[in-house]
Amino acid sequence: MEDIFGLLQKDVRFVEGLKACMNCGVCTAICPAAEFYDYDPRKIVDIVQRKDNNELTGLLKSETIWYCGECLSCKTRCPRGNTPGYIIMALRTLSQKLGYFTESEKGRQQLAIKRTVGENIFKYGYCTAAYAVHPELHPEQGPIWEYILENTHDVFERLGGHINGEDGPMRKIPDDALDELKKIFDVTGGTELFEDIEKHSRKKAEELGIQFEDTGIDNDYFIEVYTANNGTHTTHENPDEE
Amino acid sequence: MKQEGKKKIWADYQKEIADDHFFYVRSCIRQSFFPGAEQFFLHMMRNILGKDVYENPSHTTCTGIGYHSDIVPPQTIMTVVARHFALMKEAGYKNIAISCVTSFGIYTEILETWKHFPEELEKTREYLFKATGREFDIPENMAHTSDIIFKFRNEIAARAKNMLINKKTGEPLKVVEHIGCHYAKMFPKSGVGGAEFPRVLSGMAESWGGQVIDYPERRHCCGFGFRQYLVQANRGYSVSNTAKKFASMQPYEPDVVITNCPGCNMFMDRWQYTIKEMEGTTYGVNGESIPVLTYEELAGLVLGYNPWDLGLQYHMVQSEPLLDKLGIEYDITDKFKTKDGRQMPVPENLINA
Questions:
Q1: What's the burial of A146, exposed, middle or buried (CB within 10 Å: 0-12/13-18/19+)?
Q2: Of A90, A217, B73, B302, which has the fewest CB atoms closer than 10 Å, so is most exposed?
Q3: % chain B with pLDDT above 90
Q4: Which of B181, B227, B337 sits opposite A73 (nearest CB)?
């Protein structure tokens, strides 16, 4: 069995995030995720500090590590200097490296994030760009967003932006800068993490018999992980009552 | 307590903000959704306050949204940020001005990490050199752009064309200030007033004549939650947390919400539309929704800038109720015109329109 605790200790966020938890629960009291999901950051820290590899493997395969929103409100409040949010970040990174993230519905969503935000970084040099926020994926953006996309050039020009211009908001990031960004990902393990997410997602799609394409968002597996919600994640939903 | 003791306690809540010569880095979200806000900041700094602000168009995303949705590892983001520091060094600047609160939190976290784990700094230097041949220095001063406007808030007040006063009643406008979580909750010393007494936006609002509202969920997250918004299946988390905030502020009848984080600004604008569509709920008075402005947009109104050049018409919640209270005269026919004055189509189904 892998030495999960040992692997976690290689992540500086884990070292910084885990001092010694006394189970006071202040992190859970302040946590926006705990209000919405059936989630308790106190329990996560408690499990982690027990250093039990079986329990840690269970966490890496669980839904619960994907509920945190990384607002890091817990960092301000912990009276012992722990940061449950940093522990979560280390757990998520390791879950993806070991391929355990595909064992949970929420974990499988990492492919959707890699195929949207991740691809934006390489293609455009932005995590998000006006032209990459598609109304069909973002109905909450409302009619103003459809309008802006239909009139992008005029809207941005009036406000001082230059879509794919040389400078200002939404300028084209020069090709040599994009090359440098890609090289940084290559030498620092960023590209490898992207490849891990793809590799394990492809394997899970095969296992589940869901159609998978190696690129893009127009395939059944992407749509499944982007939209699936089995209704058992929150404290407000109980399928047994229906 | 003696005055000296008080000063010592409050020293932890002070922040040193550079006075001039800034290297500016943009925000993916702010330039996508509020490009007029970034441009007004630069215009105000350069042409109104006479400051030197330099931008290298070759700077990229910091990859922060990817980092906080866990697809970008720590060493990668450290090296991307180090590249920005390298561009700054090459241009001869030492003070960085950061438009995005997610980026600001990341830059702060990285500098703290390098202090606690010097081997990570050395590794980053090696990675950056290997990938790009560049070398970098750590900035002497790091500020979010809201820090900078806070620093110059009184200079702005001295030039104000519109104070935050209801022109009909003479009463101060009621302002909700929302601070992005990553501004100071992670590293309280990095923010003006720390995490307990954030002063960066309330200081601006009060200097410009407004009255800041205190309400129970004042420090609650806007609900972004990174992956909890980015993936459609999770957006209940995001909209629920926004609803909690708005329900908490509603009894105080705010005239405007101001934010320093571009993500918060977008969500608090768009989720008001969504909640209205979903269940007919609105949070302003008389069935209206509450305009949500960036601090740059608010500064622009205070300084008498044309609201349509700031881009207020490109929010989902329209700002006319606020403009009317401020007594700002605006040309409704100019609202949806191009830069050279050509009439564009008029969008339908906006809120407060």
A1: middle
A2: A217
A3: 95
A4: B181
The sign of the dihedral angle between the CA atoms of B222, B30, B69, A226 is: positive
> Does residue B297 sit in helix, strand or coil?
helix
Structure tokens at A78: 């912990």
Name the segment(s) of chain B with CATH classification 3.40.50.11810. Answer: 161-334
pLDDT digits 0-9 by tens, A63-119:
999 999 999 999 999 999 999 999 999 999 999 999 999 999 999 999 999 999 999
Minimal Cβ distance to B237: which of A37, A112, A166: A37
Q: Hey, which CATH number is domain A4-98, 1.10.1060.10, 1.20.1560.10, 3.30.110.70, 1.10.10.60?
A: 1.10.1060.10
Question: Is pLDDT above 50 for B99?
Answer: yes
Model confidence at A242, pLDDT cuts 50, 70, 90, reads very low
Question: What pLDDT shows up at residue B11?
Answer: 78
CA nearest to A92, candidates A62, A124, A50: A62
- Is residue A188 over pLDDT 90? yes
What sign does the CA torsion over A211, A214, A218, A221 have? positive
ipTM of this complex prediction, to 2 decimal places: 0.97
- Whether residues B39 and A168 touch (CB distance < 8 A) is answered with yes
How do residues B114-141 score in pLDDT, each as one tens digit?
A: 999 999 999 999 999 999 999 999 999 9
| DSSP string for chain A | ---HHHHHTTSHHHHHH-S------HHHHH-HHHHHBS--HHHHHHHHHHT-HHHHHHHHTSSGGG------HHHHH-TT---HHHHHHHHHHHHHHTTGGGGSHHHHTHHHHIIIIIHHHHHHSSSS-GGGS-TTT-GGGHHHHHHHHHTHHHHHHHTT--TTSSSSTTPPPPHHHHHHHHHHHHHHTHHHHHHHHHHHHHHHHHHHT----SSSS-SHHHHHHHH---S-SBTT--GGG-
Domain B22-145 is found in CATH 2.10.25.10: no
Write the CATH number of the domain with boundaries B161-334. 3.40.50.11810
Q: Would the CB atoms of A189 and B76 count as touching at under 8 Å?
A: yes
d(CA A53, CA A33): 26
Q: How many Cα atoms within 13 Å fall on the side-chain side of residue A94? A: 27
Is B61 in Cβ contact with A114 (below 8 Å)? no
User: What counts of helices (H) and strands (E) characterise chain B?
Assistant: 17, 8
Provide the token pair at A189.
């393990």
Average confidence score pLDDT of chain B: 97
- For the stretch A11-36, pLDDT in tens is 999 999 999 999 999 999 999 999 99
CATH 1.20.1050.140 segments of chain B:
22-145
Domain ranges of chain A: 4-98, 107-227
pTM of the model: 0.96
**B70 φψ region: left (φ > 0), alpha (ψ -120 to 50), beta (else):** left
- Rounded CA-CA distance B218/B224 in Å is 16
**Predicted confidence band at A241 (pLDDT cuts at 50, 70, 90)?**
very low
Residues of A in contact with B60 (CB under 8 A): 125-126, 173, 177-178, 181
Residues 6 or more apart in contact with residue B90 via CB below 8 angstroms: B134
